[in-house]
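All the exercises in this workshop are built on plain-text protein records. An example says more than a description, so a record of this kind follows:
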Amino acid sequence: MESINVTVREGDSFDELYLAFQKPVGTSRDFTSSEVVAQIKETFGGSVIDTFGITKLATTGHLKLALTASQTEALRRNVGSGYDERSITYDVGRQAADPADIGALYLWDLKELYYVDEGSGIASITQGTVVDVGLGTYRMRVTTSGNHNLSSTDIVRLSGTSVSGYNLTYTANTLNIVSNTVFEVVPSGGTPLFSSVASGGTLKVLKEDTIVLGTLQVKPRITSI
């Protein structure tokens, strides 16, 4: 993991912050099949208040981050500046303040989201736990050839099964873990439901990797007279 601290002035922008990653060292990280998200937070583990723009460059492992002027303007105004917008009403103490002491400090991180194969393939999809006796509906039960290593909150993607309707990414569903090779997809909004026995295909699970962690300090454009 890298640590990168960035300092900008209120209203500044940058679109030429280039990052190059090797994972493992000596091997450029291929982000082709990944989603990369740079988040700005008020506190560690807190809610996301904004995001960087990210461009994947042609060279493997190289990214370009962009932060707009309007973003830094808005971020800085989340913290009292000691003056009134652009009318610039100063207080006496603020005039002599060290600009470094009145910057708004935020945390930011760069996350990679990607899917990996689990379970050594899907052995079968069968009828699971009853959902509604009257309607005759049941959960979709997935049996994998090997350990699936899943938890109830994992986001899974099924592909290549013999029933095309099962081949989806289940972002809104939790999982019922029956055993280390069997799980059920809990319906959300009435889907998914078991329709017919299926076999074959692959199980992928969404993974998240924080590859950069740092601070973003936004300083007022005008700090003294």
